Amino acid sequence: MMLLNCLCFLYSLFYPSSRKQNYDTKLQGYIQITRSDTVVLRIGNSAIKTYIQIAGIKTPQINIHNDNERAAAIYVLKRLKYQFSGKIVVVENFVDGKGDVICGHITLKKWLLMNRLAVPDDEPAPDNWLNYIEQRTITTFGKG
To answer: pLDDT digit of tens for each residue in the chain (144 aa)?
Structure first.
């Protein structure tokens, strides 16, 4: 099964027209957190790894010239690393580099939104990310 997942994923990388389709195949592996909206998935013990952007959210960006947003991005990155680095996850609906990353019974998207560390794609990004994050109600992993 793991080999089939790897082959389907590699096929989608080399044939761009196939990337636009939804696959029923689920990718599973360990993750590293690289940015506030991107994870690196390592499949098994192999050297195969891919960057996956968490679908459907906007997060503060670290490489921007706004000190407020950069500080918020560093905070979000640290929270994500503490909560999810090294965990086994499943990626569903992987299309064009974006997908639903699931750890246990919660998606990273849902966790980020519940903790006010991100906003949905269809909403405007906050002008002041730090104030937006400070207004959150603290939730723990696995609740809700």
So the answer is: 555 555 555 555 554 444 444 444 577 777 777 787 888 888 777 777 788 888 899 999 888 778 888 899 999 989 988 888 888 888 888 888 888 888 888 889 999 999 899 999 999 988 898 888 888 655 444 444
Report if pTM > 0.90.
no
Give CA–CA dist 18/26, Å, rounded: 15
The Cα diameter of the chain in Å comes to 45
Q: Hey, what amino acid is at 39?
A: V
- CB 5: neighbour CB atoms within 10 A? 20
CATH fold of 2-134 reads: OB fold (Dihydrolipoamide Acetyltransferase, E2P) (2.40.50)
Which has the closest alpha carbon to 80: 126, 118, 45? 118
